[in-house]
C-alpha cells in the first residue's frame, strides 16, 4: 500500500503493491463534435436560471459566513487518508460521472453548457427535481421532474438527493436516479456541485471524476470579465464589480484548501475556449485511461 497526500504527493511502500492511500457506458463515447447535431435548447436540463440563482446565494452565504472558521462554512472533508488503486473503465462499464466544482462566476455553468452543445449525443446533464408548478410550455421530465414537497423531502431523507436547495419558496435538487438515468443511456453525465456535495457522489456506482474550475488572477479577471455579466436575485444582468471578482478568488482559494484532495483535475479558466478544450481532454482521459480511485470503488476481480 502507498500513501497519497494532497495534490498527488506519494510515498511508495516497501512491498510495492499497486495501492495507495489518498487523503481525505456502454462502449466508447465519442468526445469530438458530432456532425450536424443541433445544440440543446435553452431550456434543456441543467440550465435553469432558478437553480443557478439558488447556488449563487449559497456561495455568497458561505463566503460571508467565513469559510474555514469555527462553526461556519464548508464542513471538514472527513478522514485524512483513504486507500486508492489504479482503475481503468472497461468498454462494457458505464461512463464515470463528471463533476464540475468552482465558485460562482468562474464559468462552470457556461463550460458545462458548451460541453453539451459540443456533442449532445455524448454529454448530458441530469434532469433536476423541483416542487414548483409546471409552466405551460414545460414538460415533466424535460425541464424538471415536478414533484410534491412531500416526495422531494422523502428523497432528501432517504439520501437520494445529491444536491438540493430552496429558491423563492420552491425546492430544487438533483437525484441519484436522475444521474443514473443519463449513465444508463450510455452517455457521460456532467453536473456541477457545491464542494460539500462531492462526498455524496463519491460512490462505487458513480465513480465521479471531479474537476475544479479555478479563476485566473485578479488582474486578468478584471480584463477578461470587463464586459461579462452576473445574474442577480432580481433577474437583472449586472457587470462584475471588483468585489465580485475578489469574492470569487477568495472562495476558490478556500474551496481548494479544504477540498483539493478530492479534485482529480484543475482547470484555470482564463479563456473559455481553451478551458473547454482542456475539459474535453480531461474527460476523455478519465473515461479511457487508468486513474487513481478509492479502493472501495473497485472489486478485487476488476483491479488493474
From TrEMBL:
Residues 238-289 form a coiled coil. Residues 95-284 form the Guanylate kinase-like domain. Residues 1-22 are annotated as: Disordered. It comes from the Eukaryota. Gene3D superfamilies: P-loop containing nucleotide triphosphate hydrolases. GO terms for cellular component: adherens junction. Keywords: Coiled coil. SUPFAM superfamilies: P-loop containing nucleoside triphosphate hydrolases. Transmembrane segments: none annotated. This is Guanylate kinase-like domain-containing protein. It comes from Gulo gulo.
